[in-house]
Design a protein that fits this description.
Elements (H helix, E strand, L loop, with lengths): L11 E4 L4 E3 L4 E4 L4 H15 L13 E6 L10 E6 L2 E6 L2 H15 L15 E3 L2 E5 L5 E7 L7 H13 L4 E5 L1 E2 L2 E2 L8 H4 L3 E2 L2 E2 L8 E2 L3 E2 L4 H13 L3 E8 L4 H6 L31 H17 L4 E5 L6 H5 L1 H10 L4 H17 L4 E5 L12 E4 L4 H8 L4 E3 L2 H4 L15 E2 L4 H5 L10 H4 L2 E8 L7 H8 L2 H10 L10 H18 L21 E2 L8
Parallel strand pairs: 3-4, 4-6, 9-10, 9-23, 10-17, 17-18, 18-19, 19-20, 20-21, 21-23, 22-24
Antiparallel strand pairs: 1-8, 2-7, 5-6, 5-8, 11-12, 13-16, 14-15
The protein binds acetamide.
């Protein structure tokens, strides 16, 4: 494998004459701060090569040395990887940099290095002579997994983190709650999972489809599962950002605790966990009881997730029930607000202050701009670039994840053979040409773009294989957009990326990733009768 085939592409590569061959006698010398990477190397390369990589070092020619190089030019996530006949030296600007360098090292060993046990006895594991110097473009290189619409059992989450790490992605945004399911155990409110984690049946395809899967669906993560997910992430220098979506997308919570809903407008005791898709009118009531209830939820969330950012959703909250609710209207009056949008802003601002008082920061979908943005809030810009531009101009931090480019539940080709053709066509090339920083921003404003995130909503991805089909190969292109210093979209070498993908598909094969094959028979054919949402024409940039 050569350094020209790395994905995501590194900043700089220099070829050296002599490489390095791993063997029984190869040692691993792990300096302070590199222990997690040493564990990872022993677990992955150790398993596939059969070499134990014991600690040690000193004698030239047989040692992989890991070290953190403080305050160097690399930056906390940058690394310098040197391979020659004297051994391997991997220096990171911080512990994370060493870990990302180890990902490069595995790619350089060849696709077979992505297997979990040796395949060919006596195989030589040779690294090419090379110096790779690399730093990421963005500090937030995210993937959203929607574990609410379809539950992804814990193993699937852990596996996706392995796959993320291989692509140098470092933020896992877990969408844990929605109308269709509540997926995290909250000890003080057990009904959230006892009732809220299960639905009786599920709509197949678009909400207008006549088809149902009549089997019950559900599941949730216990608090120990969450601790395990967070610890597994930390070993891989991934931050897990939890999302508890309020005040919309809350029917599962209201089904569990009917008093959370607008009880003066509808009979909330009749609500069940939602079994279909779309924007749901049954939103939280803006009462002290609701605020207090969710403070309790967030207290447990903060105990479990060390992430600085806590996502509170804030998207797609229809205001119709608030318009009809005497309680909501009284609150608007009492607070002197102009209307329902400001009531939502008040709701979000409450949690902005509450999180800030506990040393955390609120992030929400771009609807939180409507009615006034809470002072410390950051924004996930999903309805195009507009929300992100407005937020950055007002001095707020932004994660760019416009649905026009990086909603990976959208189909990846035109035609009839995509499994459920939700949304617009987003090809591999579309994702490769996605630019996270809009040109309207000045340099100063652009500093507020923390990075970018690909979002996989799960209405139509009912299991792990479907998740991987939607993610890949597009997540590889996204990873390069997030990590590499690519030129402006029109100047990007997509043909060159596709050539490098030939090697990358072999890595994904060895990892067992169920990607969409670039040609030939595809495992997912549309089931007759399943309705998608095939939208053609240029995507709107709202
Ligand atoms: C979203 O897609 N509703 C954030």
């Amino acid at each position: 494998m050569t350094a020209e085939e790395l994905i995501p592409a590194p900043r700089a590569v220099r070829t050296l004459a002599a490489g390095f061959t791993l063997g029984e006698d190869t040692l691993l010398a792990a300096g302070p701060g590199t222990e997690a990477t040493a564990r990872w190397l022993r677990a992955t390369l150790g398993a596939v090569t059969g070499y134990a990589l014991p600690p040690g070092g000193g004698r030239d020619g047989r040692t992989i040395r890991l070290a953190v190089e403080d305050a160097g030019p690399l930056g906390p996530e940058g690394y310098r990887l040197t391979v020659d006949d004297a051994g391997v030296t991997l220096h990171g600007g911080g512990p994370a940099g060493v870990f990302w360098g180890a990902q490069t090292l595995r790619q350089l060993l060849g696709p077979e290095a992505f297997r979990r046990a040796p395949v060919t006895p006596g195989r030589r594991w040779t690294l090419p002579g090379v110096v790779v110097e690399d730093t990421p473009r963005f500090g937030w290189r995210g993937l959203l997994l929607d574990v609410a619409r379809h539950f992804l059992p814990k193993d699937g989450v852990l596996r996706q983190m392995d796959v993320m790490a291989a692509h140098k992605l470092n933020v896992l945004h877990l969408h844990l709650t929605d109308d269709q399911g509540w997926r995290i155990e909250i000890e003080r409110h057990p009904e959230l999972t006892e009732t809220g984690a299960w639905r009786a049946r599920t709509k197949l395809g678009h909400r207008a489809s006549p088809l149902w899967d009549e089997r019950p669906h559900g599941g949730y993560y216990t608090q120990d599962d969450i601790r395990e997910i967070v610890a597994y992430a930390a070993e891989r220098h991934i931050t897990v950002v939890p999302e508890i979506d309020v005040p919309g997308h809350s029917q599962a919570a209201i089904a569990a605790y009917p008093e959370l809903g607008n009880t003066d407008v509808i009979d909330t005791t009749a609500l069940t966990v939602w079994d279909t898709w779309g924007i749901n009118p049954n939103v939280l009531a803006p009462t002290d009881n609701t605020l207090h209830f969710y403070e309790g939820v967030f207290e447990e969330v903060l105990e479990l997730f060390p992430s600085l950012f806590i996502h509170v959703g804030g998207d797609e909250c229809p205001k119709d029930q608030w318009r009809r609710s005497a309680t909501a209207q009284a609150r608007i009056k009492e607070l002197g607000l102009a209307g329902e949008d400001e009531l939502q802003a008040w709701f979000i601002a409450h949690f902005d202050r509450w999180l800030a008082a506990r040393g955390r920061r609120l992030i929400g979908w771009d609807e939180i701009l409507e009615g006034g943005l809470a002072p410390g809030a950051a924004v996930s810009s999903w309805r195009g670039y507009g929300g992100g531009i407005a937020a950055a101009r007002a001095g707020h931090d932004v994660v760019m994840c416009p649905e026009q480019y990086v909603y990976l539940d959208h189909r990846q080709a035109a035609g009839e053979d995509e499994p459920v053709p939700i949304g617009f066509v987003r090809t591999l090339e579309d994702v490769y040409r996605f630019e996270p920083v809009p040109e309207q921003l000045t340099e100063d404003e652009a500093r507020h773009v923390l990075g970018t995130q690909a979002n996989l909503w799960s209405e139509v991805t009912e299991d792990q294989q479907r998740v991987e089909y939607q993610l890949f190969p597009r997540l590889a292109a996204f990873a390069e957009v997030a990590w590499s210093a690519l030129p402006v979209p029109a100047a990007r070498d997509f043909a060159g990326f596709e050539r490098r993908m030939a090697a990358h598909y072999r890595r994904l094969d060895a990892l067992g990733v169920a990607y969409r094959p670039p040609a030939g028979p595809r495992p997912w054919q549309r089931r007759p009768g399943i309705l998608g949402r095939p939208l053609d024409g240029p995507p709107p940039d709202r």
